[in-house]
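Structure in, sequence out. Go:
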């Protein structure tokens, strides 16, 4: 299982390197277009689950005029694989959190069942490649926040069995065993139980996602995990000084162990002037975070 995960990561790293290689020359748009449409393009974090889960009648097969994701526009945009995010507010914990996560996991499976001509549920890199060969969009799942296992390692195993392929260790708030970047430190990073969670994720082949976690949690996870880590939706602190972003040292440490960072293009994570203005208008970072689900 670790080999499969490594293959998926290698695929991601390849995409990043190729993008860097075409960043010169006059015909950049044409070359970028060719590269994009000849690659398996994978989005590692998408929140559309909230739409087809909570909005009665939202149909992925129809072209919509709002939001960003539906099947026709994924086809147009050459997006071949997508991780739908399983997300609930980090202040919901215990059994209600588990129940709500399972409701959304089921909604993803039902959505794929409704559209078997266009979509294929995938658990491995090999399955993603096979779906692509058949002209289908590969659907995967990531759980965005360790609070959704209800502080119970057996629930993590069950999520794995249901096809979850990454879990973000925390969301905006600390959970019972990992500190978040946007909450007051409570655990000094990962607790011993949190480290057991990371080891169990390694055993299950569930990727360890460090987007949202505190810097200390990141370094604890990096030290504990035998498999490379991913940042499913973070950006670069050197460009925009946001706690949700990664410092250069963190990015280098991530890469040294084979991990990858997937960039989040939420404007307040990539544009310092925008972030400063937003913070001023909204009263600070944490207030900002309460109002968005990025
Ligand atoms: Zn997020």
């Amino acid at each position: 299982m670790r080999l499969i995960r490594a293959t998926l990561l290698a695929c991601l790293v390849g995409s990043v390197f190729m993008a860097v290689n075409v960043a010169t020359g006059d015909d950049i748009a044409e070359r970028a277009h060719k590269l994009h449409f000849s690659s398996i393009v994978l989005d590692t974090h998408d929140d559309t689950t909230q739409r087809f889960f909570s909005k009665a009648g939202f149909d992925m097969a129809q072209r919509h005029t709002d939001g960003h994701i539906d099947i026709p526009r994924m086809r147009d945009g050459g997006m071949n694989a997508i991780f739908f995010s399983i997300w609930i507010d980090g202040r919901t914990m215990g059994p209600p959190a588990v129940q709500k996560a399972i409701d959304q996991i089921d909604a993803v499976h039902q959505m794929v069942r409704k559209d078997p001509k266009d979509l294929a549920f995938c658990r491995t890199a090999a399955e993603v490649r096979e779906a692509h060969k058949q002209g289908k969009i590969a659907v995967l799942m990531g759980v965005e926040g360790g609070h959704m296992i209800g502080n119970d390692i057996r629930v993590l195993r069950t999520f794995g069995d249901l096809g979850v392929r990454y879990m973000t260790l925390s969301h905006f708030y600390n959970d019972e065993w990992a500190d978040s970047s946007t909450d007051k430190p409570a655990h000094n990073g990962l607790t011993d139980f949190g480290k057991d969670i990371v080891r169990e994720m390694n055993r299950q082949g569930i990727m360890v996602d460090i987007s949202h976690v505190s810097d200390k949690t990141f370094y604890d996870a990096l030290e504990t995990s035998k498999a490379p880590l991913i940042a499913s939706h973070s950006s670069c602190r050197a460009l925009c000084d946001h706690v949700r972003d990664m410092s250069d040292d963190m990015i280098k440490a991530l890469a040294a162990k084979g991990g990858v960072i997937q960039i989040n293009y939420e404007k307040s994570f990539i544009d310092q002037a925008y972030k400063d203005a937003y913070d001023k208008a909204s009263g600070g970072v944490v207030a900002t975070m309460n109002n968005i689900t990025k």
